[in-house]
Amino acid sequence: MTKIAELNDRLRQNIFCPGKNKVVITSGVATLLLVDRMDLFKKISEFNNFNKSNDPYQEHDFGRIEHNGINYFFKIDYYDTSMEYGSNDPSNPDITTRVLTIMRADEY
User: Fold this and answer.
1) What's the rounded Cα separation, in Å, for the pair 49 and 32?
2) How many domains does the chain contain in total?
3) What are the residues whose beta carbons fall under 8 Å from the beta carbon of 97, sequence distance 6 or more?
4) CA dihedral in degrees (38, 24, 16, 61; nearest 10)?
5) What values do phi and psi take at 9, rounded to 5?
6) For residue 108, what pLDDT is reported?
7) Residue pLDDT, tens place only, 12-68
8) For the chain, where are the E strands, in sequence order?
9) Which residues on neighbouring strands pair with residue 72, listed in sequence order?
10) For position 99, what pLDDT does the model report?
11) Beta bridge partner(s), residue 23
12) Which long-range contacts (CB under 8 A, 24 or more apart) does 37-45 make?
């Protein structure tokens, strides 16, 4: 597993305590009842179905989850610590802020 994949997994597995990283949700996710939103977050934190077709760069930065009959995506992007530009080295957590975005597939 790559260092980037390890850092991405750590963020996904700690959605409720992302540290210096960020978790954002779209309006479609925000409208879910709290219990449904928590169930969706749990599924994302436990997601481990990465393969060549959905993870070609082995970074564990994207996935699709079905929840209550609706498809959701999660995506991790890499920014510098000021959140102004992309990170020069996503494998270095000292200079990278990860942003995990959770959205309904139809919002993509």
Assistant:
1) 24
2) 1
3) 20, 21, 22, 78, 79, 80, 81, 83, 87
4) 100
5) -60, -40
6) 83
7) 999 999 899 999 999 999 999 999 999 999 999 999 999 999 999 999 999 999 999
8) 22-25, 62-67, 70-79, 97-104
9) 65, 104
10) 98
11) 100
12) 39/67, 40/65, 40/67, 40/72, 40/102, 41/15, 41/16, 41/102, 43/67, 44/12, 44/15, 44/72, 44/74, 44/102, 45/12, 45/13, 45/14, 45/15
Q: Show the domain range for 68.
A: 3-107
Q: Does 1 have pLDDT greater than 80? A: no
Look up residue 79 and give its amino acid.
Answer: Y
Report the amino acid identity of residue 68.
N
Q: Given 3-state DSSP classes, what are the helix, strand and coil percentages for the chain, each rounded to the nearest 5?
A: 30, 25, 45
